[in-house]
Amino acid sequence: MERRVAREFRHKVNLLIDNEAEKDYLYDVLRMYHQSMNLPVLVGDLKLVINEPSRLPLFDAIRPLIPLKHQVEYDQLTPKRSRKLKEVRLDRLDPEGLGLSVRGGVEFSCGLFISQLVKGGQADNAGLQVGDEIVRINGYSISSCTHEEVINLIRTKKIVSIKVRHVGMIPVKSSPDEPLKWQYVDQFVSECGEGKGSVAGLASSGGRDSKEKKVFISLIGTKGMGCSISSGPTQKPGIFISNVKPDSLSAEVGLEVGDQIVEVNGVDFSNVDHKEAVRVLKSSRTLTISVVAGAGKELFMTEEERQREARLRELERQELMHQKRLALETNKIIKEQQEKERLRKLEISQKAAEEEERYRREIEQITAEEEKFKKEWEEDWGPKEPPKSLKTVTAEVHSPPRSKHKKDLKGVAHDQLETDDVDEVNMKQDKQGFQKYVEDFDPYSMFTPDQIIGKDVRLLRIKKEGSLDLAVEGGIDSPIGKIVVSAIYEDGAADKHGGIVKGDEILAVNGKILIDSKLAEAQATLAKAWNMGGDWIDLVIAASPPKEYDDEMTFF
Predict the structure, then answer these.
(1) How far apart are CA 522 and CA 520, in angstroms?
(2) What is the pLDDT of residues 22-35, one digit of tens each?
């Protein structure tokens, strides 16, 4: 599950981000979060790279990577966006106006976004939000409209129908020549107070420090306000205070260079020209003026102020690049460590393969030498008739005597049976027409050398007739440490077969290895193998060594 989520996340990153440095920065930010678990820092860092609306889906892709205990807080800190369209109707002739400001247009290579709302105004009461993108006005798509064309479209009807979808970001561009940037709503919205909204261009409305204020000026007995006004440029229309004389009436009431006049004595200054603005200001000796503080401050900066602002922006840019370089260096170190670990594991696997091949060759050499020795021994000492195989002779000597009266005796050593008894066993086996042990069985095909080293491993094939009548004891968790035969009951299938005796270790049943099994598991395996279909059961045993105590022998 986690691998699938990570794979989908990387696919989304590759789809939405082209810059490799930004990708590395994003991955490093996530790694640092999982070390510190500081969620606000993570979201702040993410906003540096998720810096345009097309990348907003990355917030949803990152959410599954956040621990469950942080996901609720993550949802609160990340921008809310919606694909659903919302339609509202506003009265253009309302005395309070529409109560919103918009910015953008096709000339700025972006859509039209709501950048400001008047608290308690029409748009605010209708549920519109700052960061909403306007997609239709009066039923017409505005995706290819300029800012001015949108304003004209709004003026065509008394009731304005607006369809929006919430994005949560605002375009920032002071002029057509400047590259388009985006700000999150919480980084952009100003405290607009109770003043009226206006339809403005794309330029910033003063940032988060700007606010609307109202001043009262009486010109009776004075020579004038002591300030100058100017019209804003095309991309930032409006009437702005361009100069304030020291100790003047304007200075006393707190007017400053860059303040935008939005209303004088009830007259909306949003769309008036310079000449009309001068006429209204001179039409009365008592003025009530509403201004947005600092809304056009950047229009009237001195050269020194512009240079200081540019230096601050450059310092911020250098700091961000420094953070990115640190992230890249960290990522490089991690990748180098991962590569070293990969090479180390590769070297270990190669050594293991070489060791396994060396062991295989040694086993082949030992087997060849054993075969050679066996052949030489048969040539020197073997009888004229075809000799019995080594495995068969060993099994017959090792097995208990078939006679009933000897079955009841305890402590008889298997390798000390008299010759007459061995011959009797061999004759009975020949009459039965089968061999006790499979001659061509290769124990190394089933077990590792460590599992059977020093053991006489044999494969038995017992015919299913009646009950197996075989008891076992021990187990991996017992002092014995293995599954061994504790008893063989008379006339049972194991007894009739004659190839297994008390003390033999059971290594496997029907191909299932029991070396590391507990007693209950071994008993269940034996019962299942005996009761399931088929005429035979295969047991792999390690024959117990013959006892060497003479006092345990009894002859009759």
Answers:
(1) 5
(2) 888 888 888 888 88
Question: At residue 409, what are phi and psi to the nearest 5 degrees?
Answer: -80, 145
Task: State how far the Cα of 120 lies from the Cα of 191, in Å rounded to an integer.
Answer: 13
How many CB atoms neighbour CB 472 within 10 A? 19
Judged on CB neighbours under 10 Å (0-12, 13-18, 19+), 500 is buried
Virtual CA dihedral for 270, 276, 279, 285, nearest 10 degrees?
-10
Q: Are 172 and 181 in contact (CB under 8 A)?
A: yes
- Rounded to a whole number, what is the distance in angstroms from the first to the last CA of the chain? 73
CA angle 10, 15, 19 (to 5 degrees): 90
Compute the residue count for the chain.
Answer: 556
CA 342 – CA 197 distance, rounded (Å): 62
174 pLDDT band, cuts 50/70/90, is: low
Give the tens place of pLDDT for each residue, 62-106.
988 888 888 888 888 888 777 789 999 998 888 888 888 888 888
Q: Which residue in the block uniquely carries the two structure tokens 């100790």?
A: 247
Give the mean model confidence (pLDDT) for residues 17-45: 87
> CA 338, CA 346: separation in Å to the nearest integer?
12
Helix H or strand E segment including 214: strand 212-218
